[in-house]
Specification:
Order of helices and strands: HEEEHH
CATH superfamily: Nucleoid-associated protein YbaB-like domain
Strand content: 15-25%
Structural class: alpha+beta
Number of strands: 3
Number of helices: 3
Helix content: 55-70%
Largest sheet: 3 strands, antiparallel
């Protein structure tokens, strides 16, 4: 039992490292706002086009930042779920074909 626990901890650490190395991007207003994050949903950068920044009002800027961040977080979440499914499959196999019961 402890072997499985140790293996799970080790694989989780490896997965975290892989996700740290993956970059996802969310954009809004045709790329005038770009947000990057890693696969662990940690925000890395926010870039706002200078011309857009000069023209936009505070409320518009705040709303579009939320849109861009949510897009990046959704991508990170999708990658995170894919990595988790792969790790689970590696550890437990296909569970004798029962894996299809859970949507995969």
């Amino acid at each position: 039992m402890f072997d499985k626990l140790f293996e799970a901890q080790q694989k989780a650490g490896e997965m975290k490292k892989r996700l740290d190395a993956i970059t996802v991007t969310g954009t809004a207003e045709g790329g005038k706002i770009t947000v990057t994050a890693n696969g662990n949903k940690v925000l890395q950068t926010v870039a706002i086009d200078e011309e857009f920044y000069k023209e936009a009002d505070k409320e518009e800027l705040e709303e579009l930042l939320v849109v861009a961040v949510n897009k990046a977080m959704q991508q990170a979440d999708n990658i995170n779920q894919t990595e988790m499914a792969a790790m689970t499959k590696d550890m437990f196999g296909d569970l004798g074909g029962l894996g299809g019961m859970f949507g995969k």
